[in-house]
Amino acid sequence: MRLWDTAGGTWIRTLIGHTDGVFCVAYSPDGNQLATGSVENTIRLWDAENGTCHKILKGHEDWLRSVVYSPQGGQVASASYDTTVRLWDVESGECQCVLTGHSDRAMCVAYSSDGDMLASDSQDKTVRLWDTASRQCLTVIQGFQDTVQSIAWSTANDATYLITGCMDGSVLN
């Protein structure tokens, strides 16, 4: 991975540690940490200031497709080709829970702006909405014609809207 200064387009540093391709990256809300997910099935947590890896999160059994920090920054969610979504404690590096229900590769995860819900999508042509406190699936959104590849919540604090991007070319709100 490379860290860039966007103002001048200059390369700041290379983060070295993963032994295979990196599919996903995320900044913590305070900008002090980075999370990266790899095809080696691990997540690495990095110090954004000096580029050192301070935790390696292990547990997924297939490629990492998406990582994202919770809005409060204490948790990282991940989606994997192993069909699972996992919630990780940033401080300890421990997996807090494994969310199951997708029947095919989990592709993307996104927290609502208040952190109360997590959305996950999958090659099973569904989106699942999870309650982050109870860790229960609240609803399954179906009816997609192909793999749902990307999701994002509206920035409103009420988590009213979710947008999805699908391999069939549709974008649904």
| Approximate helicity band | under 10%
Q: SSE order, as H and E?
A: EEEEEEEEEEEEEEEEE
Total helical segments: 0
| Shape type | globular
List keywords for this structure.
173 residues; Methylamine Dehydrogenase, Chain H; four-stranded antiparallel beta sheet
Describe this structure in words.
With 173 residues, the protein is mainly β. It has a single domain, classed as Methylamine Dehydrogenase, Chain H (7 Propeller), CATH 2.130.10. A hairpin with a 5-residue loop joins β7 and β8. The chain is globular, with a radius of gyration of 16 Å. It is built from no helices and 17 strands.
SSE order and pairing:
Elements: E1 2-5, E2 10-14, E3 22-27, E4 33-38, E5 42-47, E6 53-58, E7 64-69, E8 75-80, E9 85-89, E10 95-99, E11 106-111, E12 117-122, E13 127-131, E14 137-141, E15 148-153, E16 162-166, E17 171-172
Antiparallel strand pairs: 1-2, 3-4, 4-5, 5-6, 7-8, 8-9, 9-10, 11-12, 12-13, 13-14, 15-16, 16-17
